Amino acid sequence: MKYLIRSIKYFFYFAFLTTAIVLVLVAIGAVEGDINSIFDGGYSALWKIAIFFAVIAAVYPKVGFIRREIPLDKEWNEIREDVTGYFRDRRYVLESESEGVVTFRFRDIAGKLSKMYEDRLTLTRTPEGYELEGLRKDVMRLAAGLEHHLAPHTEE
Question: Which residue among 26, 68, 69, 145 sits deepest, i.e. has the most Cβ atoms within 10 Å of its Cβ?
Answer without folding.
Answer: 68
